Amino acid sequence: MTDPSAAAAGSTIEAHQMVSDAEHASTTQDKPRSLWSDAWGDLRRRPLFIMSATVILFLIIVAAFPWLFTSVDPDAGDLQRSRLAPSAQAWFGYDTQGKDIFARVVYGTRWSILVGVMSTLVTVLIGGIMGLLSGFFGGWVDAILSRVADVFFGLPFVLGAIVILSAFLSGGGSPGAFTIVSLVVLSIALLSWPVAMRIMRSAAITVKQQDFVKAARALGASNSRIIVKHLLPNCLAPVLVYGTIALGAFIGAEATLSFLGLGLRAPAVSWGVMIADARDYIRIAPHLLYFPAGFLVITVLAFVMLGDAVREALDPKLR
Fold first, then answer.
1. Separation of alpha carbons 127 and 189, rounded Å
2. Global pTM?
3. Which residues have a Cβ under 8 Å from the Cβ of 319 and sit 6 or more positions away?
4. What is the pLDDT of residues 250-274, one digit of tens each?
5. 30-38 contacts, C-beta under 8 A, 24 or more apart
6. What does UniProt give as the signal peptide span (predicted)?
7. 36-318 maps to which CATH number?
8. Could you tell me which residues are beta bridge partners of residue 94?
């Protein structure tokens, strides 16, 4: 025979457990999501993001594993095949030295994306640090850093890059591909960091006036802790958007410098080098230009589209 008091106690425990589970579920559901989680949830529903991310992911795979897409040596040439049109043996045809354009486009993806990524990282790193310090400290620190940024911001990009690269490459000898890549990345970063600095500075000025920063200062937090723990995480979004868009622009900048003879050069393979080699044969062999230029345009467009999608996802006013 069942004890009524034991049954009542069991019912009470079960009721408390149900209430506890309901409160836990309510707390889990009501827990506010972060900006990044909201942005990611919004991005996954945007066709623009899906298309651009798919293209970029494919290009990254091509750059990392080019041998998966072609078994042809990009440097193997045969003058008897010079400027032959696209065919079943060579989908994109041959260049002036009889080299397979498809293989060169595939292997050129690595150098083009490498220059873009490295330039973006250095630009955002320099500009981000300068902008954080300028926006947080203000006063004479802000005045000095802002004037230095204005000097670099006033330099025309192409002209400044030509001067910098000409100064370093005017000496004797033939520098290696790694040296030239480093110089190209350095020149792009030196002429582009003021934009990242201004974006980070504006974000830092806005964030440092928030209550949680004032509370951290009142509790005795050091400047370095406030910058790293509070300012930096809340200032990354606009700089991330700029970096995403700038990456495509920097890939185009490398192609421009290579076209002018100041960027990468043979034996290195990049889309800019291929476009430079095709400039004298555009009318008689347009396929020399179409394929590397087409990949360049698609890549730049993909990063610009990705940057627009990220900007709209991170800015609640644009949703």
1. 9
2. 0.81
3. 42, 312, 313
4. 998 888 888 888 877 777 788 888 8
5. 35/237, 35/314, 38/313
6. none
7. 1.10.3720.10
8. 100
